[in-house]
Specification:
The chain is mostly helical. It contains eight helices and no strands.
């Protein structure tokens, strides 16, 4: 025991424990020049046993790190290849929203429509101003006649004709009330020319003739009575009202 030498590695570390772990018994070399148990004399370098892989890794840390790095890089490449091999998910196609159609513009008016609008507007203006049939060429009846010439069956023409006939009816009623029977008859005729189907004007015409007859008879009686009182009898009118028509 006094001449036993422990085996050490080149870097001076004790390898006896590693040798025991590998299943080897430590080899001792005596200090004498003779062989031990009949074996030839060897140097410590020749008697060093082979180290296990774990001990070799410890003794050469640089190579271990390089292997670990290579392994990690290989694993990373495999992962990258695995990811690239997976086909990408198809993108969801987005359908663009339909734009609302712009509102249809107002169609352009024709020349006839513009003229109807102008004439109806002028006729209403003159009717509101009281210019029923005067002045000539710029009154409600004039514009109504032009409107009837362009669009005789238009609803606008029918409405303006009715309004003008109503204005003639009011004038005729006022003239009858004031005893202007001849003027009332003319107003009624003008109103019926504009609107022949005006019922109130037709009835008013009958009343006007009746009132005119009564008025004519009354005026003749008054004239005869006045002339008889004075002794100057005037000849009576030979033609009754309505005979000159």
């Amino acid at each position: 025991d006094g001449g036993t030498v422990l085996l050490t590695s080149r870097d001076g570390t004790d390898t006896s424990e590693s040798t025991q772990m590998a299943g080897l018994s430590p080899v001792t070399v005596s200090d004498s020049d003779g062989a031990v148990d009949g074996s030839p004399k060897t140097t410590p370098r020749d008697t060093q046993p082979a180290l296990p892989p774990s001990a070799a890794a410890v003794s050469n840390p640089v190579s271990t790190v390089s292997k670990t790095t290579n392994k990690a890089s290989t694993t990373q490449k495999v992962k990258l290849e695995t990811k690239s091999s997976i086909p990408p998910k198809p993108k969801r196609q987005t359908v663009a929203k339909r734009r609302p159609k712009p509102p249809a513009g107002t169609p352009k008016k024709t020349a006839k429509q513009r003229e109807i609008e102008y004439l109806s507007k002028r006729a209403r203006q003159r009717l509101q101003q009281g210019k029923l049939d005067r002045p000539f060429g710029d009154n409600a009846v004039y514009y109504r006649d032009e409107l009837a010439r362009i669009a005789p069956r238009s609803a606008v023409t029918a409405r303006i004709s009715y309004d003008i006939a109503e204005r003639y009816r009011r004038r005729a009623e006022h003239e009858i009330a004031t005893g202007q029977f001849l003027a009332a008859r003319d107003s009624i005729d003008d109103g019926l020319r504009v609107r022949p189907d005006h019922k109130r004007l037709r009835r008013l015409k009958e009343n006007a003739i009746s009132e005119y007859s009564k008025g004519w008879a009354r005026s003749m009686y008054d004239d005869f009575k006045r002339s008889f009182t004075k002794g100057e009898a005037k000849p009576a009118r030979s033609n009754p009202p309505g005979a000159d028509r």
